[in-house]
Amino acid sequence: MRAMILAAGLGMRMRPLTLNTPKPLLRVGDRALIEYHLEALVAAGFEEILINHAWLGAQIEAYLGDGSRYGARICYSAEGEPLETGGGIFRALDWLSPAGAPFVVVNGDVFTDYPFARLPRRLDADAHLVLVANPEHHRAGDFVLSDGRIREEGAERYTFSGVSVQSAALYEGCTAGAFALAPLLRRAIVQGRVSGEFHDGCWVDVGTVERLQQLDRDLRETQPDGN
User: Fold this and answer.
1) Which residues are CB-neighbours of 106 under 8 A, at least 6 positions away?
2) Which UniProt keywords are given for this protein, alphabetically ordered (predicted)?
3) What pLDDT was estimated at residue 194?
C-alpha cells in the first residue's frame, strides 16, 4: 500500500517564514515538519511514499533525497503550478493505485500522533477519513460520523484531519488540471461511499505562524534532548 504526503501549497499564511523555505521544511521541535509524517508512515509499514511539491520544491527533494535514510522509497511529483489537493492526487493516481489498490493521503501541513498502522488496508467505500475534535479556529467542523460512516448532516460535527485512505474510484470522471478534493468527497458522502473514524489524540493544523510556534514550543518541552 502506497502513501502520498501533500506538500505543494504556497504557504501564503506562513509568510515571511515561507519566502525562502517551503512549509514542509519549517522546523518544529528537532526536525522538519514533514519528517514527522515520514517517520510515522514508515513505522506503520508504509515504505513507498510520494510527495508532491510546487513552491521551492527543489529544496524538499534535496533535503529528503530518495528516502533511504528514513527507511522509505520517496518519489516526487513536481507540479510547477499547484494543482490543488484533488488535482495533485489525480496527477499521481497511476503510481498511487496500481491495479486499483487503495492508498493513503496525508496533508503535509498538519501534525498528529495518529497511528497510521490503524488505517484500513482495504476499503468498502471510495474513501475513509480520520476526523478529530474541532479546533478553536474551525468550530463548525466538517462532517458527521455515524456508525462508521461519514455524513453531511447530523447533531455533532467533527473536523477532517487531512489523513485518509482513498480509492481511485473517488476520481472517476476527473480530468487533468487543478481541482479541489472536497467536492469529490461530498459527492461520495451523499452516495454513502465514505467511511470514517475519530481520533482523540494530538492533532494540529499548522496553518499559521502562531500555531507553528506553539507546536514548536510544545515539542521542545517533550523531546528528550531539549533541541
Assistant:
1) 3, 4, 5, 6, 37, 41, 116, 162, 163
2) Nucleotidyltransferase, Transferase
3) 98
Q: Which residue range(s) make up the domain with 47?
A: 3-219
Count of structural domains within the chain? 1
What's this model's pTM, rounded to 2 decimal places? 0.94
Q: Does residue 225 lie within any of the structural domains?
A: no
226 inside domain:
no
Separation CA 54–CA 15 (nearest Å): 16
Mean pLDDT of 105-113: 96
Q: For the domain that residue 34 is a member of, what is the CATH number? A: 3.90.550.10
**Exposed e or buried b per residue across 195-209, where buried means at least 16 C-beta atoms within 10 angstroms of its C-beta:** bbbebeeebbbbbee
What is the pLDDT at residue 11? 73
- The answer to whether position 10 is within a domain reads yes
Determine whether 167 is exposed, middle or buried from the number of CB atoms within 10 Å of its CB (0-12, 13-18, 19+): buried
